[in-house]
Design goal:
single chain; three-stranded antiparallel sheet; Ribosomal Protein S8, Chain: A, domain 1; binds pyrrole-2-carboxylate; 337 residues; seven-stranded mixed sheet; binds NADPH dihydro-nicotinamide-adenine-dinucleotide phosphate; alpha+beta; Hypothetical Oxidoreductase Yiak, Chain: A, domain 1; globular; 45% helix; Mal/L-sulf/L-lact_DH-like_NADP
């Protein structure tokens, strides 16, 4: 028996949205941010769940995000759909752009959703899962702020630059992965620090470039890319495609703009959407071939990415989201204060 509380997805969404709108976010902004935060908590993604509310409020207080932003969707007949997020959080901008880019991808086979001038504090699986639930494959990526040393370097330059991929599966949950291109998300380091735990080796270096397992020294130093030169190159690609190419901040520019890593980062986001039906060009059944590959992976006993998340989601949907007394106290403090 624990002292944990079970709260329904609906009740937690109303509570989080209320905290955000009381703080000054418009209803559409507050609702979209709340949906994303609660989806993270529902899926046991603690590093992007209710713990992020405080960061959203800090970013608002520092006047680094527009709480009443009205995103504008811009489209022509090309494959590029652009949403100007109006300096707001990315969540509402994505929700507005998603049906438009899905329609474009169905028409052209491939389309991109570019979100400019947004603040992004969240995971990227909501983006690719939304597309997969519409029968579309998608890749999503964005820079962050400079906190990661390139392989062979020792100073923060790259962001933790997340990359996500989604593939629709007939009649089931999609194949989705979503990871930071650093060894771990920065949110994880902060959770280790709060828990008073040492980091695993190989995650970070301190401010002098020496390997460290102390989360405080790591937060003051640099995180490391996953997979050495390979993760470093993928992270660089994200800086180029989802920063330089779309006319938005790279991670060092985002850090310069903010002047701190304690606020949510401002930059852009790139989502590339494919219609597997159109892309296969009649050369076989893409969905069936995809299923054969995914089932063969699972058939070896390997766990599919997002499986943990989908299991957590099922539990949350049936019994509610489990929050600790400390998390409930924090929510009450934010609501009342
Ligand atoms: P994890 O390492 O926790 O997970 C990465 C992916 O791998 C997930 O899809 C996960 O599925 C899957 N996975 C984990 N373990 C296994 C396994 N043993 N076998 C198969 N698949 C596995 O993610 P990170 O810590 O790198 O990133 C966490 C989140 O942080 C991401 O959602 C990312 O988008 C977000 N982030 C956001 C940033 C931003 O600027 N907005 C910056 C950096 C990160 P499952 O979830 O089911 O465990
Ligand atoms: O967890 O690395 C992270 C992160 C950075 C910005 C948002 N999330």
């Amino acid at each position: 028996m624990t002292d944990n509380t079970l709260i329904s997805i609906q009740d937690l969404t109303v509570l989080v949205s209320g905290i955000l709108t009381n703080a000054g976010f418009s209803q559409p902004q507050g609702d979209a941010i709340a949906r994303t935060i609660v989806a993270g908590e529902r899926d046991a993604c603690k590093s992007h769940g209710v713990y992020r509310i405080e960061g959203c409020l800090r970013t608002l207080k520092a006047e680094k995000v527009n709480p009443v932003a009205q995103p504008k969707v811009m489209q022509d007949d090309s494959a590029v759909v652009r949403v100007d997020a109006d300096a707001g959080f990315a969540n509402l901008a994505f929700e507005m752009g998603a049906p438009v880019v899905a329609e474009r991808a169905r028409k052209l086979g491939i389309a991109t959703l570019i979100i400019n001038d947004c603040t992004h504090f969240a995971a990227l699986w909501p983006e690719v899962e939304t597309m997969a639930n519409l029968g579309l494959a998608a890749m999503a990526m964005c820079p962050s702020y400079a906190t990661v040393a390139p392989a062979g370097g020792s100073k923060p330059l790259l962001g933790t630059n997340p990359f996500a991929f989604g593939w629709p599966r007939p009649g089931g949950t999609p194949y989705v992965f979503d990871f930071a291109t650093s060894v771990a998300a920065r949110g994880e380091l902060e959770l280790y620090r709060r828990a008073g735990k040492q980091l695993p080796e190989g995650w970070a270096v301190d401010a002098d470039g020496n390997p460290t397992t102390d989360p405080t020294a790591a937060l003051a130093g640099a995180m490391l890319p996953f997979g050495a030169h390979k993760g470093s190159a993928i992270s660089t690609m994200i800086e180029l495609l989802a920063g330089a190419m779309i006319g938005d901040f790279t991670s060092p520019e985002a850090l310069d703009y903010l002047g701190t890593t304690t606020l949510a980062p401002r930059h852009g986001e790139l989502i590339v959407v494919f219609d597997p039906l159109r892309m296969s060009g009649g050369r076989g059944d893409a969905a069936a071939k995809g299923e054969a590959m995914i089932e063969a992976i699972a058939g070896q006993g390997a766990r599919l990415p997002s499986q943990r998340r989908f299991t957590a989601r099922q539990k949350s949907q049936s019994v509610g989201i489990e929050l600790t007394p400390a998390e409930m106290d924090e929510l009450a403090r934010l609501r009342d204060g």
